[in-house]
Amino acid sequence: MKDPRVVSELSTPAAVIDLTALDSNLTTMAQVLPGDRLRPHVKATKCTALARRQVAVGHRHFTCATPREILGMVRAGVGESYLLANETLDDERLRALAAVQHEALIMIAIDSTETLDAADRAGIGNVVIDVNVGLPRCGIPVDDAGRLADDARARGLTVHGVMGYEGHLMMVGDATEKQRKVDESMALLRQAARDVGGTIISAGGTGTFNMHAHTGVTDVQAGSYSLMDTQYAALGLPFAQAMFVLGTVISRTKDWAVIDAGLKSLGMDHGNPHIEGATIWFVSDEHITFSMKSSELPRVGDKVRVTPAHIDPTMAMHEVAWAINDDTIVDRWGIDLRGW
Amino acid sequence: MKDPRVVSELSTPAAVIDLTALDSNLTTMAQVLPGDRLRPHVKATKCTALARRQVAVGHRHFTCATPREILGMVRAGVGESYLLANETLDDERLRALAAVQHEALIMIAIDSTETLDAADRAGIGNVVIDVNVGLPRCGIPVDDAGRLADDARARGLTVHGVMGYEGHLMMVGDATEKQRKVDESMALLRQAARDVGGTIISAGGTGTFNMHAHTGVTDVQAGSYSLMDTQYAALGLPFAQAMFVLGTVISRTKDWAVIDAGLKSLGMDHGNPHIEGATIWFVSDEHITFSMKSSELPRVGDKVRVTPAHIDPTMAMHEVAWAINDDTIVDRWGIDLRGW
User: Fold this and answer.
1) How many A/B residue pairs have CB atoms within 8 Å?
2) Which residue range forms the structural domain that includes residue A61?
3) Does residue A187 sit in the same domain as residue A288?
C-alpha cells in the first residue's frame, strides 16, 4: 500500500482536515483567548497531532472527557496538565491515571462524596469541584461546593478550584440575551469558587468562547472551534469549517448520486450532514443519497466533501485523519484518543 | 487488569450481549429462513464471534457492506462465501479482496460499467448485479441489468445472479400493504434475474424477513434481527432485544440521574435510546440525563442498561462486546470487523 499523495487517491470514507482552515481557527482563538486563557477540549478532536498544534500557538493545559484521552495525551507528551472535566467511578481507570501523576498534573472533576471517594481510593492527588451552573447534567449544587472541597482537603487531596459548564447556553441565538445568561450562570460559579478556593475557575465552550472577558472565568474549555461543524457554523462564529468526510460517488442516476460515506462515518445526533449545493435525501449506514442541479451532479468515481453536523462524534468514528493543503496530502494523523 | 466476571464489574460505557436473547433470535430466524435461505448481514454486528453462532445454526453464506468486513470474515474462517452487497471503486480494497479469492467465494455487487471496470481491473472473478427495486440508492435499472451481466461475462467474470434491497419498505406498518409492496418490488427483481441468469436472487432485511416465502428470492440479507434495536422493536417482530449499552450513574440529583454512556457509544440517527422506565432528557457526547419515578431513580455507582435506537452504528462504535448470561460475563467478543 503506497501512501496517498492527493485527495483523489484516498480510500473513502476518509476524514480530511484542511490545515489552512485549522490553523486559521487556532490563530483566531489564540488571539481572543491566548495561552492559558484557553484549556482546549480534546474530546472534540481526539487527536494528539492536532493538540500539538494547539500547544504551538501557546496553550499548555487541556480538558479531557475520558481517562483514555488523558492517558493518550500524557503518553504523547502533549501539554502540561489535564483536567478530566467529567465524573468517573471507575477504580481501574482512576488508578491508571494515578499511575501517571508523576509525569504531568492530572486533575479530576468531582461533584459528590461518591466521586470523591473513588478519586481518593485510587490515589488521585488533584481535583476540581464540578458545579452545576444551570445545565441539568453533572455538577454539585452551588451551596454544597465548599463542603465537598473541605472534605477533599481533609483527606489530603489538593483542590485546584471549580469548573461549571454552561452547555445549555451554547446555542442561544441572541448575543445580548446569551451574554446575560452566561453572566448569571458564571455568577453562580464565582459564588462556588469563593467557597471552594483554589486558582481555577474553568467554564465555557465554543459557543460562548468570547463571552468570558468579564465573567471571572480563568480559562475556557472550547474544543469544536478547531474543526467546526454545521451546528456551530449556524452561530456565525469566526471559525471556518476545517474537517470534512470525503466520499466517492459509487452509483448515480440522472436524479440522484450515492456516495460511500454514511452514518457510520458521521455523527448524526444533530441531523443530516451537508454537501455543498446538494439536497440530502437520506443517510444509510454506508451511503448518502443526494440530488443537485443535474448539470452539477457528480459522476461515478468523483470525490465529494461532506460537512458533519456534529464534529465530536464524527471524529470518534475514524481511525485516521488526513491533513491536507488544498488537494495535497501533507500528513496522516492518528485519531489516537478514541474510546474510554 | 483482571477480567470482569459480572456485569457490575464492567468499565462503562460497555456493549453487552445477552446470549439467551441472541440465541433465541438466531433460532427463531433459522426456523423461518433455515440454512442458505438466510445470508446474514454482518454490517449490523461487525463481530466474527457472533457470526460463528450464525454458522452454528446452519447459515454458511454471509452479506457484507465493506471490504474490511469480508477480509475479517475470511481471516477468521467464518462462513463459506461472502457477498459485498455494495458498490466500490476502490482499486486497492478490491485487489485485497481478489488476493483472498482462493480462500473463499467472494462476490462483489456491481451496478454500472464503472463498477464492473473496477472489479475487472482488480482481478475480481465473481459478481452479482445489484438492481434498483425501488429504494433510491444503488442498483441498476431493471431493464439494463441483463446488459451489464452480458458485459461482465464477456470479460470472463462469473455472474452469480442478482440482488436488490427493498430498504424503502422495511418500516411500512401495515402487513398487508407491506407484503403487496414487497411483491411488487420483487417482481422487478425476478424480471432482472431472468435477464441476468445465475442462481442467486438475494434481497430483504430484518423488516421483511418473513415476506419472501413466495417472492422467488433465494436468500434474505437480514442482520439486525440478531441483536435488535428500538426501531425494529416497533415492528413487533419475534426477536428480543439482545444488545445493550451499559452505563454507570456518575451524578444524580433528586430530579435526574446522569450515566456515562452518551452519543459516542450509541447510534443516534434513529433518535434517542431507551432506558426502561425513564424519560430521556438529552444525550451528550459522554452522558445521558434522564428522570424516572423518584423512588426508582438509580443511585451514583448503579449500572443502567440502555437500548440503542439503531443497532448497526452502535456496534460500530465499540471495540468489544461482553457476552453475558444474566449478570455473569461469559466471553469477551472483539467487534473486529469495524472500518472500511
Assistant:
1) 144
2) 20-225
3) no
- Residue A121 in any domain: the answer is yes
CB–CB of B308/B230 below 8 Å? yes
**Record: contact B11-A138, CB cut-off 8 A:** no
Q: How many domains would you assign to chain A?
A: 2
Tell how strand B81-84 and strand A219-220 pair up: unpaired
- Which residue is closest to B286 within chain A, CA to CA? A65
Q: Which residues of B touch A322 (CB under 8 A)?
A: none
- B257 within domain boundaries: yes
CA distance B62 to A211: 55
Residues B86 and B155 in one domain: yes
Query: ipTM of the predicted structure?
Result: 0.97
pTM over 0.95: yes
Find the CB nearest A284 among B1, B13, B137.
B137
Domain end, chosen from A198, A225, A252, is at: A225
Query: Cell triple for residue B274?
Result: 431507551
- Residue A339 resides in a domain: no
- Assess whether A200 and A96 both reside in one domain: yes
Q: What is the pLDDT of residues B19-33, one digit of tens each?
A: 999 999 999 999 999
A209, A272: one domain: no
User: Does one domain contain both B301 and B165?
Assistant: no
Q: Say which residues have a Cβ less than 8 Å from residue A180's Cβ, sequence separation at least 6.
A: none
Pairing of strands B158-164, B126-130: parallel
CB contact under 8 A, A114 and B11: no
Of B90, B136, B339, the CB nearest to A319: B339
CA distances from A119 to A93, A111, A157, A223, A257 (A): 10, 11, 9, 25, 52
Based on the fold, state whether residues A66 and A179 are members of the same structural domain: yes
Position A230 in a domain: no
d(CA A315, CA B261) in angstroms, rounded, equals: 17
CB contact under 8 A, A250 and B88: yes
* Chain A: closest CA distance from residue B317 (Å): 7
Tell me the residue length of chain B: 340
Q: How far is A251 from chain B (nearest CA, A)?
A: 5
Inter-chain CB proximity A313 and B263 less than 8 Å: yes
Same-domain pairing of A283 and A155: no
B207 and B137 together in one domain: yes
Indicate which CATH number applies to the domain containing B248: 2.40.37.20
Tell me the pLDDT tens digit for each residue of A174-220: 999 999 999 999 999 999 999 999 999 999 999 999 999 999 999 99
| The three cell numbers locating residue A108 | 479530576
Q: How far is A93 from chain B (nearest CA, A)?
A: 8
**A176 phi, psi to nearest 5 deg:** -65, -45
A340's grid cell: 474510554
Least CB-CB distance to B250: which of A89, A251, A313?
A: A89
